[in-house]
User: Fold this.
Amino acid sequence: MKAQLSFLVGTYLWTSVLSAQILSAQSGPPKGSAGQASLEGLSRSYRTAPVPNERLQNSDRVDALTRGGKLYLSLQDAIALALENNLDIELERYGPRIADSDLMRARAGSLLRGVPLTVLEGPNGVGGPVETPPGSSPPLTPSSSAILNAGSNPLQDDLSIIGATPLSTGPPVPLRDPVLTGTISPGYSNTPQASQFLTGSNSLIGHTLTGNFGFVQGLSTGGTLSAGYANLRQSLNNGRLDFNPYVASSLGLTFTQPILQGFGFGLNGRFIRIARNDERMSDLVFRQQVISTVWNVINLYWDLVSVNEDVRVKREALDLAQKLLEDNKARVEVGTLAPLEVTRAQAEVAQARQSLTNADSLVLEQELVLKDVLTRTGTADAKVSAARIVPTDRIEVPERDELPPLEELVRVALQDRPDLETGQVQIENTRLALKGSRNALLPSLNFFATAQGSALAGQVNTLPLPGASPGTSSARSVDPAFLGGYGTTLSQIFRGKFPDYSVGLELDVPLRNRTARADLAHDRLILRQSEVRLRQLQNRIREQVEAASIALKQARVSYQAARQTRILEERALEDERQQFEVGVATSYDVILSQRDLAQARSNEVVTESDYVKARTALDRATGTTLRNNLVILDEAYHGQVSRPPSALPPD
Assistant:
């Protein structure tokens, strides 16, 4: 029993020292004692980095901008709220962390799981004021399509240019994380024997204790280094053994290295380089998500400004209609106007009131969409739900647009667009993966070398020899170098008493190699497809920049025309009123002129909105949305904007 305990303690101490050395090497320089470093390294191997909790409460900026049931927003405040609270951005904040975990897998020698490349487009707004053709009545609802589409979010922009077909993984990469294995097994056996000649008994009874330990480490060259330490302690009722009980031990090292398929630092490090590129792509996808969200918030904000302005226009039209009604009633009372004109004026008041109601409904719907984009809780928060949004900025159309030449805009877009850079990184990753597919064509030729030391030690067998004459001495003549226990076997191993060496080559040649050839052809075709898609993306970017530039110019022309029309309609209404005063024009003529003016004012609001949206679209097409709106990407990633909230207007 004492010998068995010595054996167990010895093997445990030996493997503990080996484990401590390996784990401390993996964990960095030790802190404090060697035992403390070993425990820290061991615990670190079975823990992961903490995952941040989801943030589902609104930032303090929401309360700072709210007073008296109103949420006062400048455009910069709206952008800051989106950067801190928007859930689409919050989703993409996990992307870089996912990429970091993939890099850890690659460094361990495992296959990559991939990173998401989808960007969520923000919800649609109501789209601005409702245009009513001249001479027609407003719709019964504010805008059926606008209400139904507002808040919908069906779009996901996939930045992948590789497609859904996976690339070949190529030759396997050795696991870089060292692996320790161990087996400790006591055993008992009782085997019947047909003859006593060999064992001296018809029942061979054995007590065994096995302790085997191994270590495997993959190398960056594609090779593998393994070590094995095997121990066996056995006690038998066999009188023919020279040593009983005895301990047999062996310590072996094996090195294997691919020479053709699977050889090389670059080949076996390709997944690490791909994972690092995936980290870049995750950052680019996050940037694209911020661009998409900021662009969406800007459009929603200006839509809200536009529909609020349209409410003002509709209220002015209602005031004009009510004034005409009062004037007509007064004229009827004095007998200078027919009662029919009062009825017409009343109908105009009802129509103007309906238009105002529709415009108010659009404002409420637009506020609802904007609250969902700018807060984490949406309208589930009673305070947010009850608050009315008051935009503090107004659309201002500059006298002229100072735009660089078109080619300069295209150059900036090709340089700054994150979706294009994401495509370029995917091409680079495909070429890295192609190294594996190309290397898999080679035959498998592996070099291997083994070195092993064996040892044996025990006590002289005191059992009588089977078949010996009675009275014969059982003393045995044995080599004293074998006498001892576990310590003796260790001494024999490290002194190289019983060595065993071997080297060799192992060749595996597939005669047709169709799988590897097909994989390489497949991956080359995917690369060509990706290059074509990248060219398509470049062409699409150029087309988007040109289209946005044309739209901006057209929006300016439309605004100038609408502004001039509104000025002329104001003059026309004034002329109609003067003619009505002298009896040349009828009340109906004044009503038509008021309608035309109201529509002209609404059209001016629409063209203002179209202009600012065209300008925003040009910023997105050129990839300058963040720069032109003073967005700091690092603040967006951490969800904390350093810019303080705007001062609230006085009560």
